Amino acid sequence: MLEFLFQALVFPGFLAAFIVGFLYEGIVRKIAAHAHHRIGPPVWQPFMDWVKLMFKENIRPKEGIGFLMTLSPIVSFASLLTVILFIPIAGSVLFSFQGSLFVVIYFLILYSAFFAVAGFATGNPFGYVGGVREITQIVSYEFPFIVSLLTLGFLTGFEIVPFLSLHFPFAFLAFVAGVLGKLCLPPFHIPEAEQEIVSGHLTEYSGPRLAMFELSKAIGFWVLISLGAVYFLGAQSMITFIVNSLVLLALIIIIRTIFARLRISQAFRIYWFVIGPLAVIDLIRVIIGFY
Amino acid sequence: MHEYVLPFGPQHPALLEPLHIKLKVDGETIVGSDIKLGYNHKGIEKSFENRPWSKGMYLSERVCGICGHFHTSCFSQGIENLLGLEVPERAEYVRVLIGELERIHSHLLALGVVAYEMGLDTLFHYIFRDRELVMDLQELLTGNRVHFVMNVIGGVRQDIKTEHSKRVEENLERIEERCRHYIRLFRSDSLVKSRTKHVGYLSKSKAKELNPVGPNVRASGIDYDVRETGYFAYKYLNFRTLTTEGGDVLERCIIRFRECMESVKLVKECLLKLPKGELKSSVPPVIRIREGLETVSRVEAPRGELIYYLKSAGEKPYRVKIRTPTYQTFHILGEILRGYEIPDVPVIVASIDPCISCADRMTVVDTNTNRERIVTKEEIREGKC
């Protein structure tokens, strides 16, 4: 029982996700800043921002639906916490059964969908555009993302276990593209493009509500990078897990530094007509047993 | 999907100056736009009227933070016209030299902002780092990074020292090299091209009709540059007007890079040809100009043609009218925004390089009826509005 609680609340559960998620964000910002020839904020800056936000005023706009505005950060946060339970990080996993992959896919969609709901709930035109963009982006990236997870799922019995997918480069590509889309990272930071629509769906959010969104984004970082490190790069021990996570993080930083933001139509085309078909190639290879 | 109004500004992260564009949007496509000014009106033209001519110089420097040197050049040129004053040749060269350095820094700033609006932070920071090279030169030559206060009526305040010329040439070489690199990058990088090519298109005939100025009109294939008239030292220099066909955001960016390279050439030529002689012709301490005398003075600022209209009331101006380039360029926004998508808006707006601080005009809104109306000068004088 004590071990169960430790796993759920400390490692690989809530506390690790909380700390390392913010740390990942900080590392990405710091290294990207150095690539820009800037100094950049300290690595704990996202965490400090979060603490500050927690003590700020909670403002609800007149047109906003307060119930939905409070609910959506909590749901997206809770759905991510649920996903952590199914990922075997450094050999410790809480729930594991055949078909747990589908649960993970479901909760990951829920996490993104409530970002869109959050945009619509504010009644702000920027939030509205952000929400529409988020929905369009979900429709775009979920196809290659799910196909890439299912490709490995056929071999692992639809359960998340450490698995090295060297034979499936396209599935890995689709997974990374999906992660970029889910975490709103360049070049797919379209729903919260600050130059176009201020903060998109999060424009009207402030105080603890915004803090909860920041937290769920940070935990999203931890969850998706851990998923990649375990499921695609086959991390079994603690050391391989750390190395794999850093490799994925480096990949994200490189992509973040060299890419401009796409238009939503361009992103849709890339996901459906470039990355999607490539991911399907790997899926077909698995089904007909040619790998 | 129904049409809705998306505000762009007056407070918006994309544009740090208070410009308000009401975008009529259908889904992601822009079907109409309406520009509203008046958030940054400083009443500068009015303040000119209660200052002596010489103090007006300080004011005109502060019309704009980016192209302040051109404002004083234009204002002092007007006063020199009114006085019939000859500016020494060396002073003319120094004015051109500093002006061209300022043009480089203004263009690089605009291009950095375009890169930032595309969401390409790396390019933005790189261009701004290269802009520091020319900022350093400005500090070296004039003592200030912005607001150089180089112009005085009848000449310039400070000389260009020969010991600086090596450093100047080094930095200019580097800037030229970087500009060439960026032109290559804009022409070849597929992501940059996809965000800028065929976006914000302004055809040659439309450009003639709407009449924007500066790089915006030159990118549409019309060669119009006030420097060709040969004011200041341009008459001695080997200057040619650059134009490109195309008229989209990409071409507007490319022409700015090419103009930077042209400016580098001009600065080098200035340093080479700099004649010896006086810096300033003698001007009486209190400038008196015959009442009712008027003149129009114009220079080519980084954003295009800048016009000052001056009318004298003796020791003070009776009227100073400033026509800044951005004010003339605003008209094309409605044309080049229509039909494009929301993500293109900041890129298009940044590509015309608007300077709201220069161009802002007063808007009077009657709070009772909530209606805007035009107020005559007499009404303002008598404080009726």
What does this 3D model show about the protein?
The complex is a heterodimer of chains A (291) and B (385). Chain A is mainly alpha-helical and 291 residues long. Chain A has helices spanning 2-9, 14-35, 45-54, 66-84, 100-121, 125-156, 169-182, 194-197, 207-232, 238-258, 264-288. Chain A has one domain. In chain A, helix 2 packs across helix 10. In chain B, strand 9 and strand 10 form a beta hairpin. Chain B is α+β, with helices and mostly antiparallel strands and 385 residues long. Chain B has a 3-stranded antiparallel sheet with strand order 1-2-3. Chain B has a 3-stranded antiparallel sheet with strand order 6-7-8. Chain B is built from 15 helices and 10 strands. In chain B, helix 2 packs antiparallel against helix 3 and helix 5 (121-142) runs antiparallel to helix 6. Chain B is globular and about 65 Å long. Chain B has a single domain (3-381), classed as Cytochrome-c3 Hydrogenase, chain B (Orthogonal Bundle). The longest helix of chain B has 29 residues, at 89-117. Helix content of chain B is 46%, strand content 14%. At the A-B interface, helix 6, helix 8 and helix 11 of A face strand 1, helix 5, helix 7 and helix 13 of B.
Secondary-structure blueprint:
The complex is a heterodimer of chains A (291) and B (385).
Chain A: H1 2-9, H2 14-35, H3 45-54, H4 66-84, H5 100-121, H6 125-156, H7 169-182, H8 194-197, H9 207-232, H10 238-258, H11 264-288
Chain B: E1 3-8, E2 20-26, E3 29-36, H1 44-48, H2 53-61, H3 68-83, H4 89-117, H5 121-142, E4 151-152, E5 155-156, H6 165-188, H7 190-196, H8 204-210, H9 215-218, H10 249-273, E6 294-301, E7 304-312, E8 317-323, H11 325-329, H12 331-337, H13 344-351, H14 356-359, E9 364-366, E10 371-373, H15 377-381
Antiparallel strand pairs in B: 1-2, 2-3, 4-5, 6-7, 7-8, 9-10
Helix pairs in contact in B: 2-3, 4-5, 4-10, 4-13, 5-6, 6-10
